[in-house]
Amino acid sequence: MDAVIFDLDGVLIDSEQVWDEVRQSFAAAHGGVWTAEATRAMQGMSTPEWAEYLVSAVGVRLSPAEASAGVIAEMKKAYAAHLPLIPGATETVRLVSSRYPVAIASSAPAVLIKVFLEVTGLPVPVAVSSEECAAGKPSPDVYLLAASRLGFAASSCYAVEDSTNGLKAALAAGMTVLAVPNPHFPPAEDVLAQVRVLSSITDLPDALA
């Protein structure tokens, strides 16, 4: 294997709950009605996709562009107050990057990926947001683009994921997939059955040996 590509939310940052809280509060403030399926439906969506979902499915009374701008502004405030790093995540990325080229392939907007990299100072030469792609996860686009920018075939890359849609995206890209299941939003069992499951991000270096 030639490279390791990390998801961000739920793998390196314990942020899925932050996204959920921010979107729910934003929706309530702008005329939306949260639905039971909204949280999982938006996991993995690109920024344009979840912004459209907030308007069309949740009923936020703004344009998708206004919705995305508002939510991202609130996320930046939340990260400025506290970046919820997963214990051991930054140390793991540093260790893995000493052995493999690494990248991030995330559904997070580029501006938030930049905040993460600036705060942590991690040596990640390639960071791709699904904003740059035609479709977000479970489409493989963001993983394929990250592998391409690293200069490797997707089939020679490991992917590290936590969610159902993220796992599906990495599998569809043809990568060797390692799952660190999100405890707040556990991935579907039928998808987990197709990948290697780790109990913690800190188990990754040994899993790559």
Automatic annotation (TrEMBL):
Cited PANTHER family: 2-DEOXYGLUCOSE-6-PHOSPHATE PHOSPHATASE 2 (PTHR18901), PSEUDOURIDINE-5'-PHOSPHATASE (PTHR18901:SF38)
Pfam families: Hydrolase
Record-linked InterPro entries: HAD-like_sf, HAD-SF_hydro_IA, HAD_sf, PGP-like_dom2
The name this protein goes by in its record: Haloacid dehalogenase superfamily, subfamily IA, variant 3 with third motif having DD or ED
